[in-house]
């Protein structure tokens, strides 16, 4: 009997030893698996960190190049029948350096040429180029000689309320000149809008569309509101001659309409090109603006 019980104890002990061995082996396998997973996670984090440091997760350069340069705000042509729908310019891939040459053929002589500054006002340059490509300005009138010494053009309706069915924000608006007892800027301070300046004008201010100003004399308003977009490079004498015309009532009680109609037969805009070196000693050569207020 004793021998039988010993054998049973021995068998039970061997069974327990086998169970403990299997449990130990399973625990070792779990630890190995966990260690392997942990190492893999660490490796992934190291690789991801290195890739991030090298810029692998940065935006694609082509995608960056496709970022919007300008935004065009839709305007309700049904609410304002003076607006004309000719589509909108592109928002991406627009030139932001150099100049475009704008050429205006009028029935008063010319042509009048201007450089549109794409570095200071890329959206204005893009808008005018788009509209010119749609013949938007052709056979339209410059409907106003402003009291600030500029010829106002670019509104097919001739009302001051016309334009395309989109608008864009101000660019390159000069800062207000220093206070002066007189209407003229202090000695040594250049005018805000030198003769020869090309600027946008809108109603309301800041909702630019198609209308622009050609300054035929220096102007320094107390609160500048017109974004400077370029300068006249040829035909300034034609603009001065138009500016010297007498004016009549425009139908709204303002005596600003040229007595003789001023017709833009055709307006064209060339491709972007490098900006030429500025001429020296000429007031009209470089109508500069302070950093944009718009």
UniProtKB/TrEMBL annotation:
Pfam families for the chain: Pro_isomerase
Residue ranges annotated as compositionally biased, kind Pro residues, are: 183-193
Q: What is this protein called?
A: Peptidylprolyl isomerase
Could you tell me which PROSITE patterns the record lists for this protein? CSA_PPIASE_2
User: How far does the signal peptide extend, from start to end residue?
Assistant: none
Give the record's keywords alphabetically: Isomerase, Membrane, Transmembrane, Transmembrane helix
- Ranges where the record places region Disordered: 169-202, 273-294
Record Gene3D superfamilies: Cyclophilin-like (2.40.100.10)
Is this entry keyworded Zinc? no
InterPro entries per the UniProt record, alphabetical:
Cyclophilin-like_dom_sf (IPR029000), Cyclophilin-type_PPIase_dom (IPR002130), Cyclophilin_A-like (IPR044666)
Task: Tell me the PANTHER family matching this sequence.
Answer: PEPTIDYL-PROLYL CIS-TRANS ISOMERASE B-RELATED, PEPTIDYL-PROLYL CIS-TRANS ISOMERASE-RELATED
Q: What does this protein do?
A: PPIases accelerate the folding of proteins. It catalyzes the cis-trans isomerization of proline imidic peptide bonds in oligopeptides.
Q: Which residues form the PPIase cyclophilin-type domain?
A: 99-269
The record lists the membrane-crossing segments as: 33-54
Instruction: Name any one GO molecular function.
Output: isomerase activity
């Amino acid at each position: 009997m004793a021998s039988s019980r010993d054998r049973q104890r021995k068998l039970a002990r061997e069974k327990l030893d086998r169970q403990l061995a299997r449990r130990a082996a399973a625990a070792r396998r779990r630890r190995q698996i966990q260690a392997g997973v942990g190492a893999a996670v660490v490796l992934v984090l190291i690789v991801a960190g290195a890739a991030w440091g090298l810029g692998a997760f940065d935006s694609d350069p082509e995608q960056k190049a496709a970022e919007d340069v300008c935004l065009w705000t839709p305007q309700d042509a049904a609410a304002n029948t003076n607006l004309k729908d000719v589509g909108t310019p592109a928002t991406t891939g627009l030139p932001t350096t150099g100049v475009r040459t704008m050429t205006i053929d009028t029935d008063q002589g010319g042509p009048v040429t201007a450089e549109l500054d794409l570095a200071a006002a890329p959206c204005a340059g893009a808008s005018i180029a788009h509209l010119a490509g749609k013949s938007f300005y052709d056979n339209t009138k410059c409907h106003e000689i402003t009291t600030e010494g500029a010829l106002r053009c670019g509104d097919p309706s001739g009302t001051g309320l016309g334009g395309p069915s989109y608008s864009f924000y101000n660019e390159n608006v000069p800062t207000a000149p220093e206070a002066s007892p007189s209407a003229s800027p202090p000695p040594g301070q250049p005018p805000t809008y030198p003769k020869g300046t090309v600027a946008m004008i809108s109603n309301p201010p800041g909702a630019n569309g198609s209308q622009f100003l050609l300054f035929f004399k220096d102007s320094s308003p107390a609160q500048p509101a017109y974004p400077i977009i370029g300068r006249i490079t040829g035909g300034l004498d034609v603009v001065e001659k138009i500016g010297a015309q007498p004016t009549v009532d425009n139908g709204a009680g303002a005596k600003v309409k040229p007595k003789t109609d001023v017709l833009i037969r055709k307006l064209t805009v060339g491709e972007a090109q490098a900006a030429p070196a500025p001429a020296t000693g000429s007031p009209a050569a470089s109508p500069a603006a302070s950093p944009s207020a718009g």
